[in-house]
Amino acid sequence: MTPDELPVSVQFLQLITAKWVVKPMYVAAKLKLADHIKSGVTDVASLAEKTGTKADMLYRLLRALSSVGIFHEGEGQNFTLTPLAECLLDEPGSPRDMLLFVNDPVHDRAWDHLHYCLETGNVGFEKAHGAGIFDYCKTDLDFSEVFNRAMSSNGQAVHSATASVLDISSVDTLYDIGGGHGHLIKFLMDKAPSLKGGVFDLPHVVAGAEDAKYPELKIMAGSFFEDIPKGADAHILSFIIHDWDDESAVKILQNCYQALPAGGHLFICDAIINEPNAPNLGKLLDIEMIVMTTGKERTVDEFKTLIEASGFAFEGIVDTPGPHSVICGRK
Q1: 173 and 247 share a domain?
Q2: Number of compact structural domains in the chain
Q3: Known catalytic residues?
Q4: Which tens digits make up the pLDDT trace of 250-305?
Q5: How far apart are CA 99 and CA 8, in angstroms?
Q6: What mean pLDDT do residues 40-68 have?
Q7: Which of 23, 133, 311, 319 could form a disulfide with 257 if both were Cys (CB 3.0 to 4.6 A apart)?
């Protein structure tokens, strides 16, 4: 029986009890159970000793996760990894980091205020923590690291999808604006060895971009609401514009416009909202934007309006194999 063939009541129950799966996944990730199992520690008693947990309680958690394809239970309460369990491994690019972010208590407390967001139009994160997420990360460095790791790890798949369609053959120097630790620009520099690259972000963020493998990478600290450094003939902003309301988004793009030479390229990587009723991860991500930021996911027409309001000519949309598209502009 396929999911669509299940009784509506069962489909509904699966939706409302999603936390019964996701929170055990979060705890499994925190305990690094997948890493321990991969190293050869497979029985519950030994796993409990490794993780400082009660064996009977840990077994119940692993049994539950095995019932949905995360881990496989063998004889004698021994567990092995499944393809889904491998996603919990603490490895570069692992989706584990995104799991840790969206289930972090700091994140949860913001989502507790979704109803408040709908009533007031205000940001749930600010209600919960007294500051916007980007200002909050300046003071809570532990959460900042969780956030930045999540953005970087999620970016691996996004970067691959972007690089597969992005035509940078005519670009000499590309700056990744709001580029965090520089994973995207490094990915693109690997794809096009002649490309000169730079990453621009807040000082406490861009500090993590240092990489001996890319000594030629230009690392620049500052705010994209102020002056963006000149020197590139193209800018790329990956999942940046969706964090901001229209007025702020136009300000960022206007600063890009001022920094780019005539003919300069603008590439915006974001989800595109499609027609009503059609499945779209962006429509769910849009609720995250309601809770966490002043931003939103946008339609093609809304992106066109932003780009033209910033001075750029709108050049169209390039779809990627991932959940996002590349919106293109030209100065």
Answers
A1: yes
A2: 2
A3: 242
A4: 999 999 999 999 999 999 999 999 999 999 999 999 999 999 999 999 999 999 99
A5: 28
A6: 98
A7: 311
